[in-house]
Amino acid sequence: MKRSGPAPADPRPAAGVRTAPLGAEPRDPVAPPAAATLVLDARGRVIGWSPAAEDLLGHTAAEAVGRPVSAFVDPPGGEPPTGQGRTARAAHHRDGRTVRVAATEFPLSGPGPASCVLLVEEYRQRRLSQARLALLDALATQSPLGLAVYDRGLRLAWANAAHDREVGRPLADYRGMHAEDLYPGGAFLGSRGPRTLTEAMRRVIDDGEVFVDLHFRSRLPSDPDSHRVWSCSYYRLQDAEGRVLGVCEDAFDITPRYEAQNRLALLAEAGRRIGTSLDVASTARAVADVAVPGFASTITVDLDGAVLAGGLPAPGADGTWVRVADRSEAPSVAVPADAGPLRRVSYPEGSPQRRSLASGGHVLAEDTLVVPLRQGGTLLGLVTFLRSGSLRFFDTDAVQLADELTSRAALGIDNARRFTGERAAALALQRQLLPQRLPDQSAVDVAGRYLPADDVAGVGGDWFDVIPLSGARVGLVVGDVVGHGLPAAATMGRLRTAVEALATLDLAPDEVLTRLDDLLGRGTGGADAAADVPYPDVTTGATCLYAVYDPVSRRCTMARAGHLPPVIVHRDGSYRFPDLPAGPPLGLGGLPFEAASFELPAGSLLALFTDGLVEVRDRDIEQGLRALGRVLGDPSADLGELCDRALEELRPGGRTADDTALLLVRTRELDAGRVAVWDLPAEPASAGRARSLVTARLDRWGLAELAPASALVVSELVTNAVRHAGGPLQLRLIRDRALLCEVADTTHTSPHLRHSSAEDEGGRGLLIVARLVERWGTRYTPSGKTIWTEQPLPAPPSAR
Length: 800
Fold this sequence. Notes:
The chain is built from 20 helices and 33 strands. The protein is an alpha+beta fold. The chain has a six-stranded antiparallel sheet. A six-stranded antiparallel sheet has the order 8-7-12-11-10-9, with helices on both faces. Strands 15-14-13-18-17-16 form a six-stranded antiparallel sheet, sandwiched between helices. A hairpin with a 5-residue loop joins strand 24 and strand 25 (575-576). Helix 8 (255-273) runs antiparallel to helix 9 and helix 16 (621-631) packs antiparallel against helix 17 (639-650). The chain is elongated and about 165 Å long.
């Protein structure tokens, strides 16, 4: 049987029609209620019925689909609108009661459904409005978050109570003001993002940017002396049609959190910067650099004068106070780190500093905090913190932070003080170990430089020396001890002293190195010996070059122990490295050393150096040697200038990974007019002839007043040689800085001083000689020995 009338509508929703609820019943009274959705065809019949509609009116979808909408909702009639396109209507529940709803109807495009009706129960809509009003009221009156709305002209249009409290005035007093006028001088922190309020708001309005959690620092309008920090966000305010009405600002005071973070950052920065220098003043300045301006407006650091010198204040002494750091956030007051000499300060009676010294603790006087610098119970100095403006007062946290900063500073300053004292001792030792000045002599012109690798301690194991020898000769030495610092310097001092002692014995260069090798081998006793001393000698060896130059013969004899050969620069600027037997480094023991001898014309330049000058990681040693030869190739340059050129060229900026020593020697020649040489037979008559020859030559040289003593000296020396040595004799007289008399024979028998009795017929010769001369000694040669004497020359008549 067919049913008459229109076919029942398909209870399934039409394609593209949303029948799911817009939302379940909200538990949050502020959330919007779910809307009942009714989809209608062109004839006004229901073709879609949402679960929310079933919940609102009680009819199931099967019961509602196909029926006219008027069966459920009255037509609009003359009911007043409810806003946003809604009208108030009466809806009919399945149980027969009337439900007041707000209805919104809008057409649907395309085939199928013609319109959609949204129904919201009136009391729920009213509840939503009331909840929203309550929320707005809470934000306006109770929220701790400062809220403000600025119009398109960036003038304040509305603000909540929290914002009023910040400004310190009711909204009516400052409505219409620009943000820059409310917070003059304020600025956003950080290097990114907007710098000013105007810039931030203008970018929000013009470009639609949203800024979240910008940190803004400014004085409180209600308290110009108080700086605060806010976390601010900025976003557009738009109406339902999308028109830009202005910009919203919300701000939350994060000053306590910000200051806590700053304190942690300050301590981290203090740990990173304080104590990294071993200079007392630099360490004190680091404290000032860390504390200003983040913690204090001004800081001064005063130290006892003894601390700057590396010592400790005398117990009970009032102390001499020296200001080593003075820094202020005000540019006109700031003192740069290299601000010239330190200055002494004194504290008047009643001052916070004087009270701190008297009490031994910190003193707080409103905007001034004085904290003693103490380490191990010893007062090293005082740190004075001053605050102004927003940092006017020191609270408990600030005092604790000042104590922490000062404690770290005291530790760093004490470490620097200890180092300063130790370095002063090390430098004093170095000055004693290295030649204070090169001695005056006639054989050579000399200049030298020393550059330690340990530029902090300033000491190392390289050295050079110039040693006057008999016969107007000169000994030249350069050495390099393995290692750096005080252990190497101590070993260097032993070797230098030994070389000087051996050289004065007139030993040949190879013999000097042999004796040094024995000395260094005995000085390293192994691990067991090192364990018995607090500072064991860790040196394992050394290299050395020793040369003797004779200005009379212009012969140079040298030997080396594992050391680089010297550079010989001729008068035409050409240079060469002499072929010398290398020899083993000192300290190995048991291996021989060999010497080589060659002529050096007057005016030749001899450069003795250590490997630290020419050997670096990024340059081959051969390149360094060639570079040194080129630098020294200027025969007219002053020796000191050449030293500086060599260091600048080969060690630019004074950077060196190894100790460096450089000794430059320009040879001289004693002309024949200042030297007299006679060969004498080994017979008694030679003594008389020697007296005659010496007397005549001294008279020619204008030294007649030395003739009596000199004649007696050579007479005794020749007589001893005839009696005890035999063979041909040679008498040599040299007029140098002193008068030198030498008698050579062919034996190696060593003469000795002895005291003769009244009955002895001889034995008094050397005793007489020793009384008549200033110095005397014996020099051995392969062919025999030479006994020499020195007598001071008489002062010129103008100096008498």
